[in-house]
Amino acid sequence: MSAEETAPPVTAFMLIKTLPEWLAMTPHERVRALDTEVMPVVKAKTTGVRSRFYDTEFYSTRVTDVWVWEADDHNAYQLLIDALRETPFWDRYFEVVDLLVGTENGYARTYNVAPVTTIST
To answer: Parallel, antiparallel, or unpaired: how do β-strands 65-71 and 49-55 relate?
Structure first.
């Protein structure tokens, strides 16, 4: 890869469902749990990751939240998943229903075409 070319970031749509232990906590206890039990591990064991969190329980019973992670590369993504598995997030507070992992506009890079499916109106 040349200096101008970089690997596209890896994006993971983590579909999760709350578990009874999480729901038994108050909202303040939930924030404290994430702040003290989950985020310090992620921050200590990863670099090059970013996230956004979406509530979906108003529209879905199978998936209550979607946590979107973007990692600089596949190694950063793997370290993220390993870090999350070392916390109560994984299988105590949430069930990971599915992981949808991809790269944005991968087809455009593969075929050297414009990313026509990305629009803004």
So the answer is: antiparallel
Q: How far is CA 109 from the centre of its chain?
A: 23
Phi, psi at residue 11, to the nearest 5°?
-110, 130
**pLDDT tens digits, 32-73:** 999 999 999 999 999 999 999 999 999 998 999 999 999 999
Cβ within 8 Å of residue 94, ≥6 positions away: 16, 17, 18, 19, 22, 65
Per-residue pLDDT tens over the stretch 77-107: 999 999 999 999 999 999 999 999 999 999 9
DSSP 96: E
Using alpha carbons only, give the angle 48, 66, 90 rounded to the nearest 5 degrees: 75
Greatest CA separation for the chain? 52
